[in-house]
Amino acid sequence: MLKHILLVSQDPLQEAGLLDWAFHFAGQQQAKLTILSVLPEIDYSLLEWLKNIRPQDQQAQERLGRQQVFQSWLDQAQSLGLDCDLHIEFGKVYLKTVQLALQKSVDLVIKKIDTPAHAHASLFSSQDQHLLRKCPCPLLLYKAESSLPFNNILASIDVAVEGLDEETYNSNSDTDLNQNILALANHFAQATPNPLSVVHAWNVDGENLVRYWNVDLTSDDLERLNQHVWFGHHLALDRALAFLKQAQPNLKVITPKGEPEVVIPPLIVEAQIDLLVMGTLGRSGLSGVFIGNTAENLLESIQCSVLAIKPKGFISPIQP
Q: Is residue 121 part of a domain?
């Protein structure tokens, strides 16, 4: 169960559906809900020209106005018995979000995806990309057109096929990340009648090199190589999904061959996925790297809501 949820909201009139759903979800989880609204930093140099306005008075006026905008939602939360409070900050949205998430030790951050600057722009704005890289806890970026609750949920995991003995498997940090991805995906899937889907994209490392090294390699040899590699992925995938089978008896498992950023986006469109649950750093992630190349390439290729999860031990570069 989640204990503390942080909802970032800039315009409650435009985000009424998201606020309603967040209240319901927090109630289901019996979680505290904190609403964060971030106002632009006040230009103090401009106020110096206006002798009758003190910066602290202007800030207090802005804060009061934003409090009034959210008051009806705070009243609604109280009537529902939710533990809910409002934080109003000045500055950059991503910076204040990460700082508050760290200060409050929240379990989940929810934010509506910013409206793209133009039709061909990336789904995720600069602010959202900062959050994807630096948010210390699971981050739900909601696309406005997505249904709430989500109808079709896809969890993407990457299993290690090396060292499948139980001791190695249980000590693998990749195992923790996969279980967090699947557990959170299952949380959200409880609200929909549709079965949860899990995708694992796999490949035969060096298949093209094998073709190059051995010109006499037959198609049967390559087929046996593929079957051998797939068998390892199949064993690792079965183990990763074992704990989820009881909660999701109709679990749908998809195993396309290819690079994730190539094979997953078409699946999202075909299956009408409205929430992708994924990790942002793989097992090969380096210290000081805040998002993996595969995750970044995949995020640039999708058009749906995303629940992005960091691996255990991730440290945000932003200080609380």
A: no
Of 85, 72, 62, which is closest to residue 12 (Cα–Cα)?
A: 72
- Relative to beta strand 305-309, strand 139-142 is antiparallel
pLDDT digits (tens, 9 = 90+) for 261-279: 999 999 999 999 999 999 9
Report how many domains make up the chain. Answer: 2
Give the whole-angstrom CA distance, residue 196 versus residue 245. Answer: 11
Contact call for residues 137 and 102 (beta carbons, < 8 A): no
Give the CA count within 13 Å in the CB-facing half-sphere of 155: 29
Q: What is the length of the chain?
A: 320
Q: Note whether residue 247 is domain-resident.
A: yes
Angle, CA of 316, 275 and 102, to the nearest 5°: 20
DSSP string, 42-56: P-HHHHTT-TT--HH
Residues 209 and 311 in one domain: yes
Residue of 163, 293, 306, 182 lying closest to 245 (CA atoms) = 182
Q: Which residue has the higher pLDDT, 193 or 213?
A: 193
Full-model pTM: 0.89
Domain that holds residue 282: 149-320
